[in-house]
Design goal:
The structure holds 2 protein chains of 2 kinds.
Chain A: H1 6-16, H2 27-32, H3 37-66, H4 75-97, H5 99-105, H6 116-127, H7 132-159, H8 172-192
Helix pairs in contact in A: 1-7, 3-4, 3-6, 3-7, 4-5, 4-6, 6-7, 7-8
Chain B: H1 3-11, H2 24-29, H3 34-57, H4 67-89, H5 91-97, H6 108-118, H7 123-153, E1 155-158, E2 161-165, H8 178-203
Antiparallel strand pairs in B: 1-2
Helix pairs in contact in B: 1-7, 3-4, 3-6, 3-7, 4-5, 4-6
The chains are: A mainly alpha, B mainly alpha.
Chain lengths: 195, 204
Amino acid sequence: MVEKALFAIFMDGLFIKNFLLIQFLGLCSFVGVTKDVKSAAGMSGAVVFVMAMASTVSYLIYTYILVPTKMEFLDLISFIVVIAALVQLVEFVVRKNIPSLYRSLGIYLPLITTNCAVLGAVLLNVNSDYNFIQSVVFGTSAGLGYTIVMLLMAAIRERSTFVNVPSSIKGLPQAFFIAMMLSMAFVNYFWVIPI
Amino acid sequence: MDPLSEYIRGITRDNPIFGLVLGLCPTLAVTTSVENAIGMSAGTAFVLICSNIFISALRKQIPSAVRLPIFIIIIATFVSIVKMIMQAYFPPMYAALGVFIPLIVVNCIIIGRAEAYANKNNVFYSFIDALGISTGFLLVLMLIGGIRELLGTGQIVTFDYILFTLPINPSVTTMILPPGAFLTIGALMAIVNYQRAKKRAKGG
């Protein structure tokens, strides 16, 4: 197997396999928390941290506990427990240090556990046989890619609240149309650049 | 509560996509064709029905403080079963759906129904609710998959059998790529909202 260059993996996570716009992972938070830039930024920060940590810890668990004991079929259950524990940790830290952010994120903070993006990153790492450093790089860059799109989307939605649209398009459908245009840009632009 | 109206409610008012707006990730990601849509909803339906029955049967034993971790472990067990069955008996489908089969674990529909319904109602009604929600999910996925496949490739092919062919081939490749998914669901949601607003204006 040819080792994939770290930079290529980094760009994969950031743009080419962008979690929100190309792979559709983590859409609940994408339409739920992007009403203003501040909470989108806070949410993304939490997701980046959880994603990088989850990639690291789950790689160690998979390689050093599940594979030697031939219990790979337990991967799903052990990963979800790792993620749930990490999310609990982030929740404690945010509630203690940034209470205002904790209030504005509301239900979405504990819901990072069931955010497809985090578990998706972990599973993609295992599926593509990445080694330790590659896993960490992919987890982190996927989190950063998530952040970029969340911030773009939140900024566009914040401005577009004043746009006069038919009442049946206001809200979710409008968000999906904005996402369509962003996604078009990502698909067409980043498929052209060879890395 | 009569069983039939509970069943219909899962398709209309509590439709997972247009009513509750849950489980958007698989809805958009796997609906590149009708075939994938059917495979995905079959997997989700199995997990939803099993976990609803299981959680409803155990609802008096599960302490409410730690119910969410318990739900997730129960759901993860059934998802592992689905994943292994698909890998063994339907390898092409498993390859096409890829990471989204294990990701049923974090599908909001399943944990949402466990929390909102199976935790409070008896086994029979939980089963009916799961059946209704699964049917609603299947119909929406097939609708979106159908639209995208028809506009993207000009025909609908399900399990090597050509169901329907357009007289002219539009081949809007964008429809099978990610932007098409956002466009389709945005348009469908706008139509649903419009119909709802009209109904509300009429009925008061």
